[in-house]
Write a structure and sequence with these properties.
Helices cover about 50% and strands about 15% of the residues.
Length: about 300
């Protein structure tokens, strides 16, 4: 049985752990205290039970420890940190792991903002260090971006991707250390154009959401942008591009509509308002509906994986 060590005790740690538990892998949670590590393990078990819809699952070994004292690396396949997004904290942690973790064990950082090249700079075993970026909620969203730093070993990176495939995730190997990795760059290109359309009065925020969810977003659940154009034809895309590309937004600054709502203290549900008003009850219903749809998509993906293996 593969053994995974998760360092950190926040929301991401619980979601990441749930995915490995669902794949029947042994999981170890390390926190600043045993109590925090145990709470994260309990949360991960609860999320994993939801993934299985309460169905019986093979019992897997789990344990907890403290970040500074735990050293039982025998049988460990992968170490991933999910500590607070603080560069100095991550640098300090990786320096400790560099010295403590046997050099054949790959180590990942879930950081979305700090490149592994910077986190691991100057460390003796930086070749086995990678970004391993999840999207929230980590137990439901299948993608994991395994990003190479300047000194990361690409062969070892491929083996990390293989581990994630065994855990029923959908990993991609990002071969160059660039801001935003892969998915966030594509996502931000979409967001830049969407916000530009709102700024110019061409569409409302609500209409942008409807347009994306019920057109190409709807299709993307079945096929990514490359496969979709393989199906429909690149020639038609090329003809449309001649007309559309010159007018697309290429601004380097945040859109006015977003900077305005942030300045007004309305960054979204967590503050009770964004583009829309979010009283607590309405926000709770929207979040529950969102997770229900993600769970339905997760179940479909699992069926797709089963059919691929069967065929």
């Amino acid at each position: 049985m593969e053994k995974i060590v998760i360092i950190g005790t926040g929301t991401m740690a619980a979601g990441i752990g749930a995915g490995f538990l669902d794949a029947e892998m042994e999981v170890v949670f390390l926190g600043r205290s045993i109590d925090k590590a145990q709470a994260s393990l309990t949360a991960a078990h609860k999320l994993a039970l939801g993934l299985a819809d309460g169905a019986p699952r093979k019992a897997v070994a789990t344990s907890v420890g403290t970040i500074d004292d735990w050293n039982d690396w025998a049988g460990v396949s992968w170490v991933i940190e999910t500590v607070a997004e603080d560069f100095d904290l991550k640098r300090q942690l990786f320096a400790s792991l560099d010295a403590r973790v046997p050099p054949h064990i790959p180590i990942g950082s879930n950081s979305s903002g700090f490149p592994i090249t910077s986190i691991a700079q100057g460390l003796a075993t930086r070749g086995r260090m990678f970004n391993a970026h999840y999207f929230m909620p980590a137990h439901l969203v299948p993608l994991v971006e395994v990003a190479l730093g300047t000194d990361s070993d690409p062969v070892l990176g491929e083996s990390v991707c293989a581990l994630y495939r065994r855990a029923a995730k959908k990993p991609v190997l990002v071969r160059k250390d660039i801001p935003g990795f892969l998915a966030n760059r594509i996502q931000h290109a979409l967001m830049r154009e969407a916000m530009a359309l709102i700024d110019s009065g061409i569409a409302t925020p609500e209409d942008v959401d409807i347009a994306v969810r019920y057109s190409f977003g709807f299709r993307y659940a079945a096929a990514g942008p490359v496969l979709q154009k393989e199906i429909s034809g690149w020639d038609s895309m090329a003809r449309a591009a001649v007309e559309i590309y010159p007018s697309l937004s290429n601004t380097h600054v945040l859109s006015t509509c977003v900077s305005d709502i942030i300045a007004a203290g309305k960054p979204g549900m967590k503050a009770g308002a964004g583009f829309m008003e979010w009283p607590a009850e309405k926000a709770a219903v929207a979040r529950a509906s969102y997770e229900k749809r993600l769970k339905a998509a997760f179940d479909v993906l699992n069926m797709d994986n089963y059919m691929d293996e069967k065929n």
